[in-house]
Design goal:
2 domains; four-stranded antiparallel sheet; rod-shaped; alpha+beta; Endonuclease I-creI
């Protein structure tokens, strides 16, 4: 099963027959049913959502719901559930319209119930193990998509709308926003799974960044070391070492002995072996002076 299916199965088990459940039901019908004057038809493949819808329709409207199951064998064998409602259609339509018109004045719990019905009807979330975090809702008309997007933004979700060929996609990319959305759904098991993967990926990314920084520092140190060695070879070639003081000659001697060491490592070696302390910055100062000397000599001779 997909991550989205697991979430939907989890939240449809939470059945309390409350006002919020009715709001979720009406939201679902708004976005995933065929509504005519005398009939409402719902077609879906998820058995858990089917049971959830069937119970809520029976309990809230006291109507006869006709349930038909068909087996689809195209590509892979799966069940298609069809719910037909032919009673109190006008009452249900009025409830749906009233909900949609007043959603911005609703309480936070009612808005959460709206989002639950929305997700069950047309939402999906990528498995966090995949490369990208992604939550999306496919909505048939532009006005409804704009209403959903406006509601999400009012709840501090960073959502956007994208026009597709025959519908509109309202989507969220932020991993924190998606985590908050799963909390709104009260899908605790899915939330733990999502957060475990997110923490692992964040840790892995941090380790990769540290490794990249370390590699970059090593490469920078290597380039710097090669430059210092070239300067020393230049001084030797033109007999310029006699112009240096004893301390600088000593540092050059150790650099030739340990050519691949970093400034910090070289400073530690010289301090230990000569018993004359020197710091990394002190070593760097001497190498800059040597570089200046080489550059000046090259300028004079060209």
């Amino acid at each position: 099963m997909t991550f989205s299916t697991n979430i939907k199965n989890e939240i449809t088990k939470d059945f309390n027959n409350t006002v919020e459940d009715l709001l979720s039901l009406n939201t679902y019908l708004k976005f995933n049913s065929v509504i005519t004057k005398n009939r409402i038809t719902i077609m879906l493949e998820n058995a858990s959502i089917t049971r959830w819808l069937f119970k809520l329709l029976k309990n809230n409207y006291n109507i006869e719901v006709i349930l038909t199951m068909r087996t689809i064998k195209r590509f892979k064998k799966r069940n298609l559930y069809i719910l037909d409602i032919k009673e109190k259609v006008n009452t249900i339509i009025a409830d749906i319209d009233n909900l949609f018109q007043n959603i911005f004045d609703a309480s936070l719990e009612e808005k959460k119930a709206f989002l639950k019905g929305l997700f069950l009807s047309c939402g999906s979330i990528n498995d966090p193990k995949k490369n990208q975090y992604h939550l999306e809702f496919f909505i048939k008309n532009k006005k409804d998509a704009e209403t959903v997007n406006k509601l999400l933004i009012s709840l501090n979700f960073k959502s956007k709308i994208l026009k597709r060929e025959k519908e509109y996609m309202v989507y969220i990319k932020s991993s924190e926003n998606i985590s908050d959305f799963i909390k709104y759904l009260n899908a605790i098991n899915a939330l733990f799974y999502f957060e475990d993967i997110r923490i692992y990926k964040d840790h892995k990314n941090m380790v990769n960044r540290l490794n990249n920084c370390e590699q970059a520092n090593m490469e920078k140190s290597l380039r710097s070391s090669e430059s210092v060695i070239k300067n020393i070879e230049y001084l030797e070639k033109y007999d310029l070492l006699i112009l240096l003081d004893e301390r600088r000659k000593e540092i050059i001697k150790y650099k030739k002995m340990y050519p691949d060491t970093s400034l910090a490592e070289l400073a530690e070696i010289i301090s230990l072996e000569t018993e004359k302390p020197i710091t990394k910055s002190g070593i760097n100062h001497h190498f800059r002076q040597i570089n200046d000397m080489v550059v000046s000599h090259q300028n004079l001779n060209h």
